[in-house]
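Example for tutorial group B:
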């Protein structure tokens, strides 16, 4: 009996020693990773044509800093060019056939043979997202504002879903309860009680400060143009909310991986692209045919065009705060899900809800990628980057393996050869937690979860042209 007990004690001791060795080895390998932290800023619809013009004007000093101190290039998207689909591809390293998100909304069968159209929800994803992967590998993460993160799921850190901001607001058609308050909605954040801690940072169109209103003149757009104003004003308030929440939580927690999503440039592009183009033409002494074709007073074009450029300047200020806080071992990545511009040739484009139309301007496939940090060459241009390559690149930067079943690859063009030689990329068959095949995961795909916010979300999508 004593021998058996002693044997068990020796085995337990051996396991403890092995565990300690593994922890030490893992820590050492992470110290030797290309970066100790990664901060990923997602900017919906950010386009190089706008960015480069505003850099030339001196309005985007931090984007200019990223270009001069780091590596930049186009980030190729894929069809359909819908935000929840592409951001799911960015955050999983897999395309829609593997991650399961196909549009902004999905059908939900109701009793009596009826069908509801419900905005996509986090339970529908059939692939692990980068923060899920890192959490399981004992890395700390922080996620704020991303598409399709409600209901918030457990992570090794914190997650503020896109519905942390109370979408049901105002007199512009958003449904509210009889007492004028937004309906109750659970699982806005993880941990759940984090919502109480961040609620003080929430601002709405009605509670924007005077400084905030001057920073981006969405109130001017609201006053001068009825269409598109509410959507732009609310989006600005939401982006401000998420930027402030992200900064406070990042300062407090400093997770290994931190990511923030902003949407204002895309919303302003949908509503005011033609106005901005006319504003640019007038401001630079080019043809005034654009303004004449719009049939809008010059002062309106000036004010709306200026608000459009202010939306990019706002994002630049958020980027500046990130760069100022980033240490020498931090990789900063900025990505967009697509670009935006004229529909040259007027070809029918997929605009959502099964519709194709020859719209004047819309999403296009080339978004942006900018990187700055350890081992990233300065002033270089990367070619061939795709949205599905972002997650493998984040994992590589943190010294973690990528999955053979991912559609994306590590963007080696973001790193100098010395880093690549010192840190060869490693792969494993899969980083999915369940051991299921793709077919088995797709067979278990879940339906969207209805919520009190759904009509407000559908109204927002209608305002941007995605739904009828």
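The residue assignment follows.
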């Amino acid at each position: 009996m004593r021998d058996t007990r002693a044997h068990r004690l020796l085995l337990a001791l051996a396991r403890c020693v092995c565990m300690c060795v593994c922890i030490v080895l893992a820590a050492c390998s992470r110290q030797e990773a290309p970066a100790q932290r990664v901060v990923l800023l997602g900017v919906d619809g950010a386009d190089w044509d706008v960015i480069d013009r505003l850099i030339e004007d001196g309005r985007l000093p931090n984007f200019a800093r990223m270009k001069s101190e780091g590596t930049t290039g186009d980030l190729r998207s894929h069809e359909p060019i819908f935000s929840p689909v592409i951001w799911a591809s960015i955050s999983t390293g897999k395309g829609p056939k593997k991650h399961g998100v196909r549009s902004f909304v999905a059908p939900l069968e109701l009793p009596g043979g009826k069908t509801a159209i419900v905005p996509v929800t986090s339970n529908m994803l059939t692939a692990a997202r980068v923060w899920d992967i890192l959490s399981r590998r004992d890395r700390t993460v922080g996620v704020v504002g991303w598409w399709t993160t409600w209901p918030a799921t457990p992570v090794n850190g914190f997650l503020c879903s896109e519905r942390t901001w109370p979408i049901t607001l105002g007199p512009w058609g958003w449904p509210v309860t009889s007492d004028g308050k937004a309906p109750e909605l659970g699982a806005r954040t993880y941990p759940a009680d984090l919502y109480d801690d961040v609620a003080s940072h929430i601002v709405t169109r009605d509670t924007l400060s005077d400084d905030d209103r001057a920073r981006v003149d969405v109130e001017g757009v609201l006053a001068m143009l009825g269409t598109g104003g509410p959507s732009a004003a609310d989006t600005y308030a939401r982006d401000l909310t998420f930027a402030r929440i992200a900064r406070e939580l990042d300062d407090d927690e400093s997770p290994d991986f931190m990511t923030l999503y902003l949407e204002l440039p895309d919303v302003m592009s949908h509503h005011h692209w033609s106005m901005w183009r006319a504003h640019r033409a007038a401001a630079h002494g080019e043809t005034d045919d654009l303004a004449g074709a719009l049939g809008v007073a010059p002062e309106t074009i000036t004010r709306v065009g200026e608000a459009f450029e202010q939306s990019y300047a706002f994002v630049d200020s958020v980027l500046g705060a990130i760069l100022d806080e980033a240490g020498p071992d931090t990789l900063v990545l900025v990505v967009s899900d697509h670009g935006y511009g004229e529909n040259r040739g007027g070809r029918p484009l997929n605009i959502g809800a099964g519709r194709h139309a020859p719209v004047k301007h819309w999403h296009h496939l080339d978004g942006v990628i900018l990187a700055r940090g350890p081992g990233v060459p300065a002033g270089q241009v990367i070619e061939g980057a795709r949205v599905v390559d972002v997650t493998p690149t984040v994992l590589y930067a943190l010294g973690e393996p990528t999955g053979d079943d991912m559609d994306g690859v590590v963007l080696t063009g973001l790193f100098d050869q010395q880093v690549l030689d010192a840190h060869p990329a490693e792969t494993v068959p899969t980083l999915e937690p369940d051991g299921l095949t793709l077919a088995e995961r797709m067979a278990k795909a879940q339906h969207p979860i209805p919520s009190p916010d759904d009509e407000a979300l559908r109204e927002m999508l209608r305002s941007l042209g995605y739904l009828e």
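Residues 2-31 form the longest helix (30 residues). Compare this with the pattern of hydrophobic and polar residues in the output above.
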